[in-house]
Design brief:
Two copies of one chain form a homodimer. By secondary structure, the first copy, chain A, is of the alpha+beta class. Chain A has five helices and ten strands, in the order βαββαβββαβββααβ. Chain A is globular, with a radius of gyration of 19 Å. Chains A, B: GO terms for molecular function: RNA binding; tRNA pseudouridine(38-40) synthase activity.
């Protein structure tokens, strides 16, 4: 068997997220599986690393699948890019060892959130960032961000749809930087619950706007109460940036 | 009279260009004039520096208009950005001296063209760049670019619709640089004829692909024959970047 690894980039704007759903629903996994199944001549299932939400983008989603066929990697890449819609691109195809598994082997995931923080909208990035008109106080946001670091039960920052056995996740780092008119928030961790990054970012924005005190975060986490978290940042500003194996 | 200057950014993708046309046509000038006219309570006409083509973008288009009213610049900026569509932003409003004229006083205009030069499409930039899959030969393109520099009659690189008195323009510089997966071509000059930048870029792409010899450019210019120029780069990759006064 050949274990193919795909590196995938997408504008998630018109999709219901990564994960394949019912036949009427447009998902990134579904689109890629359809093209691969056409290419190989039978149904193919792929394993994606991160189940990005509806509307969320990726610079480098990772997926793998095993087949008996020997298809040259360049041929597969070209076929996929010819038949996939233009908002999904396969930027690399490789053959990995038999034990490589896109979901189980990942060690760290990094998500990037882009906030356009000027008093006018950015015509080129309006679908790829969240617009916050009032100036955000970065130093307050940094104080708040520190409290998310480390291993915590993140129930409070999850969606009720999260059906994971454990709600404990380890956040390795949160970096906030000003890049031109953008405020970029980069969150790395061993994994994230459904809506977790968007709830963290939404809460950091509340702190940056002075609507919430930076010191409240620890209490919110420890409460394990979803009701304590009220803000969910737009999906259009969020990107799965990189995955470490 | 107060002479207001606007700095305007836009995604030209869904417009018929800068210049106001008949009432049914959507143009950037038209949209801005409509909002200003609503604000001031009578028809307002603005003077734009560059008449960008349909589908062409701008980082910093300049326009001006004179009114007797004293409207604070911040108030005007906020009003415009509240009522303009999100693909048009007014990034600055100022009051200039009486003699300032957006069209007649400009000394240099710089256009930027973005080519995405990878073998897969860029999901985030597909409306904001032209995709060329085959690798472009930059050194050949640079040899070709040099021949455009200086003062020439650019009839061959214009559209038959150009109704200017003089077809002579002075190109100050053409810079080609590789930035990540993009090839960026930056063209500065005292002014450009209708379609001129897109025809220059289209021809440079032909040279970069080996479809045309770099040495042909001088002959094409001197021919003054529109038939000698066959390639017009997509409008979506072109940006009016800056204007010097």
């Amino acid at each position: 068997m050949n274990n193919y690894k795909l590196v995938i980039q997408y504008d998630g704007g018109r999709y219901k997220g990564w994960q394949r759903l019912g036949s009427g629903e447009s998902t990134i996994q579904g689109k890629i599986e359809n093209v691969l199944s056409e290419m190989i001549g039978r149904p193919i299932e792929i394993i994606g690393c991160s189940r990005t939400d509806a509307g969320v983008h990726a610079f480098a989603q990772i997926a793998n699948f095993k087949i008996g066929e020997n298809i040259p990697v360049l041929e597969m890449k070209q076929y996929l890019n010819r038949y996939l819609p233009q908002d999904i691109s396969v930027i690399d195809v490789s053959i990995e060892g038999e034990r490589f598994h896109a979901r189980y082997n990942s060690k760290a995931k990094t998500y990037l959130y882009k906030i356009w923080n000027e008093d006018y909208s950015n015509p080129f990035m309006r679908r790829f960032s969240m617009h916050v008109e009032e100036t955000l106080d970065i130093s307050k946001m940094e104080i708040a961000a520190k409290q998310f670091l480390g291993e915590h039960d993140f129930t409070a920052f999850s969606n009720a749809k999260s059906k994971k056995k454990s709600m404990v996740r380890n956040i390795y780092s949160i970096e906030i930087e000003k890049v031109d008119g953008f405020l970029q928030i980069r969150v790395s961790g061993d994994g994230f619950l459904y809506n977790m990054v968007r709830k963290i970012v939404g809460t950091l924005i509340e702190v940056g706007l002075g609507k919430r005190d930076a010191k409240e975060i620890s209490g919110m986490i420890h409460s394990k109460d979803r009701g304590s978290v009220s803000s969910l940042a737009d999906p259009g500003g969020l990107y799965l940036e990189s995955i470490e194996f």
